[in-house]
Design brief:
The structure is a single chain. The protein has 336 residues and is α/β, with parallel strands linked by helices. It has one domain (6-331): TIM Barrel. It is 38% helix and 13% strand. It has helices at 6-12, 19-23, 34-53, 69-80, 144-147, 156-168, 185-194, 211-217, 233-240, 245-258, 273-287, 318-331; strands at residues 109-116, 126-131, 152-153, 173-177, 201-205, 223-227, 261-267, 293-297. The protein has an eight-stranded mixed β-sheet with strand order 3-1-2-4-5-6-7-8, sandwiched between helices. The longest helix is centred in the N-terminal third of the chain and has 20 residues, at 34-53. The structure holds iron/sulfur cluster. Residues 84-87, 89-91, 93, 100-102, 104, 135, 183 line the site of iron/sulfur cluster.
């Protein structure tokens, strides 16, 4: 068992229950107006936390509620689309009429879904669903084809059926990725309402979501598979157009630690070992603990617009990889 992912492992063994399956068994009601529904949400959140602490797989024998806490979350998310603050850009646009920075309307699109064998060992086979679009604009985007197009409509019933099929084929989790999943949180809630399997949910994200979104989605995320890209704000602005990066991402990692299990990914970049890798490792060790699961990744390739930035227009050198590993292994004990 991987330290830090005990609950996830227990779900895989059928000894614990995926959070969304618990949500589906908490009856909810709807009130008039967003604020009133948020109040109901806060009350049910307390009930959920109690249930989560001592949930047994027996709960799966109970029929899901006709209108459950997960329905309420889905409805709140659909309402939030009218003034979108899903991510920290907080465009405030009505996504039923127009699009914000991420170029997403209220409809979600995805590029592919399959059993991924190339994720961290504890995740594979991982049922990855690659949603289109992103809330970042990384000049070195390793998935730029997915991020810059709208491929297939993400139909909730169809994807839920695929999640159940992949589960029977051996998936250990459903891994919502992209691009990024945050801007599709409403669709993901709709999908989960239809899923029957007791499968852990992995939220594979840039960790740039807003607190408003975290409040709703954290109750259905079992593992936060969060990218920690930069160790300072200026690199984040330069390469991803992400403002207030450190403030937002560190806040979200701390909150994620209290609301799920954590697996952090850091893609080491050329010429960024000291300003980013070293700073990230230091912050993680101090604030999330040396036993947090941490994947130090060396597969950076200069793609997309990376050639316009000479300092990142190459692969890593052997010396950079050695130095990054030295930094991480000194402070962190649970490297992938
Ligand atoms: S998800 Fe973020 S980038 Fe997209 S519209 Fe909402 S606030 Fe803007």
């Amino acid at each position: 068992m991987v330290r830090g992912l005990e609950r996830y492992t227990a779900i895989n063994l059928g000894e614990a229950v995926a959070k969304f399956q618990i949500l589906k068994r908490i009856p909810a009601e709807r009130a008039e107006g967003f604020e009133e529904n948020l109040k109901i949400h806060s009350r049910l959140k307390r009930e959920f936390k109690k249930l989560l602490a001592d949930s047994s797989p027996k709960i799966l024998k109970e029929e899901p509620a006709k209108y459950s806490f997960l329905h309420l979350k889905k409805d709140l998310l659909l309402e939030m689309l009218k003034e979108c603050v899903f991510c920290e850009r907080k465009c405030g646009v009505n996504r039923y009429e127009t699009k914000g920075f991420c170029k997403c309307s209220a409809k979600s699109y995805y590029s592919s879904e399959f059993l991924h064998l190339g994720e961290e060992p504890e995740l594979v086979p991982s049922h990855t669903i690659f949603f289109n679009r992103c809330t970042f604009a990384c000049v070195f985007c390793q998935n730029y084809d997915i991020v810059n197009s709208d491929d297939s409509i993400a139909d909730a019933k169809e994807l839920a059926m695929l999640i159940d099929i992949r589960y029977r084929q051996g998936s250990r989790n459903v891994n919502f990725v992209g691009g990024n999943p945050d801007q599709h949180a409403h669709t993901i809630a709709e999908i989960l309402l239809e899923v029957r399997s007791n499968i852990p949910v992995v939220w594979n994200s840039n960790m740039f979501h807003s607190e408003e979104l975290a409040e709703i989605i954290e109750d259905f995320v079992d593992i936060w598979l969060g990218d920690f890209k930069y160790g300072n704000d200026s690199c984040a602005l330069r390469y991803s157009k992400a403002p207030r990066y450190m403030e937002v991402v560190t806040r979200n990692f701390l909150r994620a630690k209290d609301n799920g299990e954590l697996l952090i990914r850091h893609l080491v970049m050329p010429n960024h070992v000291e300003c980013c890798t070293a700073k990230i490792v230091e912050w993680v060790a101090k604030n999330l603990g040396e036993w947090v699961r941490f994947n130090l990744m060396f597969q950076y390739r200069p793609v997309y617009k990376a050639y316009e930035y000479s300092e990142i227009a190459r692969r890593l050198t052997g010396e950079e990889m050695r130095r990054a590993y030295e930094i991480a292994s000194k402070r962190l004990k649970n490297l992938v």
